[in-house]
UniProtKB/TrEMBL annotation:
PANTHER family: ALANINE RACEMASE, ALANINE RACEMASE, CATABOLIC-RELATED. Gene3D superfamilies: Alanine racemase, Lyase, Ornithine Decarboxylase, Chain A, domain 1. One of its GO terms (molecular function) is alanine racemase activity. Its cofactor is pyridoxal 5'-phosphate. The lineage of its organism: Bacteria, Pseudomonadati, Campylobacterota, Epsilonproteobacteria, Campylobacterales. Keywords: Isomerase, Pyridoxal phosphate. Residues 216-325 form the Alanine racemase C-terminal domain. It holds the Pfam family Ala_racemase_N. Its EC number is 5.1.1.1. It comes from Campylobacter canadensis. The keyword Isomerase applies. This is Alanine racemase.
């Protein structure tokens, strides 16, 4: 059976590298575990995060949060639809627009998403006065606010507006607010002006800027069968591979249903070439090994597809077995 290994030592190493950039204050460390912890396994990674001492995470929505709702004191829901939200003492609803306040209820815990130039979600600066008014009228538990940078190149431009937002909010609200803007890139560029930071991809060993990190995931496939094919025989759908010699080939138990990108003639770890088209549940290589490592560095594998490690990770089927090593 195909499986994923999660290197605990490397994972903890990466978390410590992130913490160095926020004065080692773990209470100000928001760990992003959305989309099945970037494909690494929400249940497995959340257990490691708890062991490390993390108490504040961010997830996509309440469906994800239900799986770990009793583990963490603070769970920020980044993309939850407000009309479907059911409050929980550990949940914090991310407010992506003023419309969300049509569905919030007294005592709901909230954080405002601030649009500082990425133009994906969030409130504009001219909407903050109305937001504060509604928060007070509805007696919501307003904990803070956050923004997201579009790229490392745009951080300084967005930060200027972000600081205006934060100053306005704090000046117009009596209780101390918790602000966080820095993603992994901003953290490792040392452009974190907040007391807090959010780290997503960096925890798994990758960053869009230079950072001293270690890959956490390795992906393996196991052999289903072997056979010898002769010159001019084909492999797979649409006869996309024809042998130029006699070859010993094997079929392995990973395919595009498991998250491999559907492409021909790609190479996996150790420069082994997949022959012909990837099938839904398998691929074929010139090999007789009982198992093959697909990748132990997702960045190198991603280059085969001209894509990012994000896509490589989140495509992986959640049912692939995960082993902590």
């Amino acid at each position: 059976m195909a499986y994923i290994t999660i290197n605990k030592e490397n994972y903890f190493y990466n978390l410590n590298e992130c913490l160095k950039h926020i004065n080692n204050n773990i209470d100000n460390f928001v760990l992003i575990l959305k989309d099945n912890a970037y494909g690494h396994g929400l249940l497995q990674i959340s257990n490691l995060a708890l062991e490390f001492g993390i108490n504040f995470i961010a997830l996509k929505n309440q469906n994800e949060a239900e799986k770990v709702k009793n583990k963490f004191k603070n769970i920020l829901l980044l993309s939850q639809l407000a009309q479907d939200y059911e409050s929980n003492e550990n949940y914090i609803l991310g407010i992506n627009s003023l419309d969300y306040f049509n569905y919030t209820k007294k005592n709901d815990k909230i954080m405002l998403k601030l649009n500082t130039g990425m133009n994906r979600n969030g409130l504009q600066i001219n909407e903050l006065k109305q937001a504060i008014k509604i928060i007070k009228e509805q007696k919501l538990r307003f904990l803070g606010a956050y923004t997201h940078f579009s790229s490392p190149n745009n951080i300084d431009k967005q930060k200027k507006l972000y600081k205006e937002y934060c100053t306005y909010l704090q000046d117009n609200y009596d209780e101390k607010l918790f602000f966080h803007s820095s993603n992994s890139s901003a953290v490792f560029l040392n452009k974190n002006d907040d007391l807090a930071a959010r780290c997503g991809l960096a925890q798994f060993g990758f960053c869009d800027v230079e950072a001293n990190l270690k890959p956490v995931m390795s992906l393996y496939a196991q052999k289903l069968s072997s056979r010898t094919i002769q010159k001019d025989e084909i492999i797979g759908y649409d006869e996309r591979f024809k042998a130029t010699k006699s070859m010993l080939v094997s079929t392995y138990d990973l395919g595009y249903a498991d998250g491999l990108i559907y492409k021909e003639n790609i190479k996996i770890k150790n420069n082994i070439k997949i022959l012909g088209k990837i099938s839904m549940d398998s691929f074929v290589c010139e090999s007789n090994q009982n198992e093959l490592c697909i990748f132990d560095n997702a960045y190198e594998f991603a280059k085969e597809f001209n894509t990012t490690v994000y896509e490589i990770f989140v495509r992986l089927n959640q049912n692939i077995k995960k082993i902590i090593i």
